[in-house]
Amino acid sequence: xxxxxxxxxxxxxxxxxxxxxxxxxxxxxxxAKTEIPSVTEKESSAESIAxxxxxxxxxxxxxxxxxxxxxxxxxxxxxxxxxxxLLTSAEDIHLTDVxxxxxxxxxxxxxxxxxxxxxxxxxxxIDSYKITSEEDMIIICGALxxxxxxxxxxxxxxxxxxxxxxxxxxxxxAYDILPDDNSWKSNAKDVDINPADQNKSLYEMYKSKTGxxxx
Length: 215
Fold this sequence. Notes:
Low-confidence stretches: 10-24, 26-34
Number of helices: 7
Distance between the termini: 20 Å
Mean pLDDT: 80
């Protein structure tokens, strides 16, 4: 899957680059080779055609990029859902209050120790990107919610282990597909489960946190 992601992103970059490289001047020069330049009206018409072609190529490149990203996100959501978990119950993770302050917790998973930090209506799991089974995420989130539940986006209900795990998966996908120089990638490695992001897709979370678009 990693190779497929890299190949897809490289293809997307190539398509985008192609769109960016086709400029008005490029097409104008091409048109000039087949037309006799001299009349102002013809030059204006060539420039207009060049602009239209450049815009069309750019739109096609952006559309292809968006479709690739959409396919990758959908496939990674499915993989997380289908991946067989390692846990059978919450007892397997040995969730522990590290300092007795009901804030800093640790749990065990696949031979590693993870940190989970609770602040009001927020659970932050350090290096959460390493855990990729949604089935196990649900068990872990259930254990955390049993200690400190997190409100839903309506401010009244509480988040379920399932929708907490869904948010976790979106963070994992963001961490996998975003380039290293993206400002949100470092944040995506540690999931923050809070009321505001309940049931938000990767696209919605990315837009709300960065103001930008994945595609």
